[in-house]
Amino acid sequence: MKQLIQKLTETFSPSGFESAIREVIKQEVQPLADEVRVDALGNLIVRKGAKAKNGKRIMLAAHMDEIGLMVSHIDENGFIRFSNIGGIRTGGLLSGRVQFTNGTQGLIGVERDLFAAKSPTFSQYYIDVGATSAKNCPVKIGDVAAFKRPFLELGQRLVAKSMDDRIGCAVLIEALRALKTSPHELYFVFTTQEEVGPRGAATSAFGIDPEIGLAVDVTLTGDTPKSKYMAISLGKGPAVKVKDTGMLSDQHIVEWMCSTAEKKRIPYQREVLDGGSTDAMAIQMTRSGVLAGCLSVPCRYVHTPSEMVDYEDVQNSVKLLVALISAPLNL
Ligand code: ZN
Ligand code: CO
Q1: What percent of the chain shows pLDDT beyond 70?
Q2: Deepest of 71, 86, 128, 171, by most Cβ within 10 A of its Cβ?
């Protein structure tokens, strides 16, 4: 599974520009699916199985886009100013490397008099792609880049850019691979544009019209020096979301997830997240409403170029997801 995670996280596909990652995922899921299609917003929708007695129509969603940078201005010397795609944290920017979807690479600098400043603002950073003028600058207004950082193994911990949410994509792919039988009509959806508001999940959920929706995404942790109080740590198992900024999970879904984990002896954590939301928010509010919840993979340093997860948590997330979608369900 580590190879798959490396392949997914080293692909460059910021929100709205998901074609590269969609191709990578399509290769993985095509042989495992009953049907694969792409909707107008670029969501990759993978159907598996049909509804039996006690079966439900279940939508699983992991977003395949990542945060990124978009060229907004190029000055006479070829320095590029940029707009954010999603929640870029300025703390992770300085001296970082980026790669544009056309292959151009660059580094992120900051205006000289701010180099030692405590916290330069977003607009005081720029990208240097080695150009000397606007004319020979190899990118144009509207081109996008993502962080460039190789996948890294640190013992039990895995580090990469775009763990948010390629790790969710990896969990969905591995669950699809591991699934033996299911009474449910299952939709594994690799959504677009989550990082700019869950736009792909909104349209795909409307199209699928699920009875139950589960997002698989990362959540923050409270286990680094001077973290805010948060009862989530790396290595203590996948998290069952109870609440985040955009959603209160359905209580039956929370109960179903927790009791399944207990039955299968999979460690899990209960999650209350004060900051951010997921595709589950859009699924829950589609049409006349959907029972929704979220399985979260604990992740440190979210929205920086080096996001960290625990490999055992990832494997336990796959186990929990497979257990959830394999058994009949009365909700
Ligand atoms: Zn995410
Ligand atoms: Co995110």
Answers
A1: 99
A2: 171
Contact present, 200 and 191 (Cβ < 8 Å): yes
Q: Are 82 and 50 in a shared domain?
A: no
Copy the structure tokens of residue 67. 């945060």
Q: What separation in angstroms does the CA of 123 have from each of 58, 108, 127, 296?
A: 43, 12, 11, 32
Residue 117: band (very low, low, confident or very high) from pLDDT cuts 50, 70, 90: low
Indicate if 243 and 311 belong to the same structural domain: yes
Euclidean distance between CA atoms 98 and 89, whole angstroms: 14
**Measured in angstroms, how far is the CA atom of residue 110 from the centroid of ligand 2?**
24
223 pLDDT above the threshold of 90: yes
Residues near ligand 1 ion, CB 5 Å cutoff = 164-165, 217
Q: Which residues are catalytic?
A: 194
- Residue 114 structural domain: 68-147
| DSSP string covering 226-266 | T--S-S--TTS--EEEEE-SS-B--HHHHHHHHHHHHHTT-
The model's pTM is 0.96
Q: How confident is the model at residue 121 (pLDDT cuts 50, 70, 90)?
A: confident
Would you call 76 exposed, middle or buried from its count of C-beta atoms within 10 A (0-12, 13-18, 19+)? exposed
Cα 215 to middle of ligand 1, angstroms:
10
Distance from Cα 164 to the centre of ligand 1, integer Å: 5
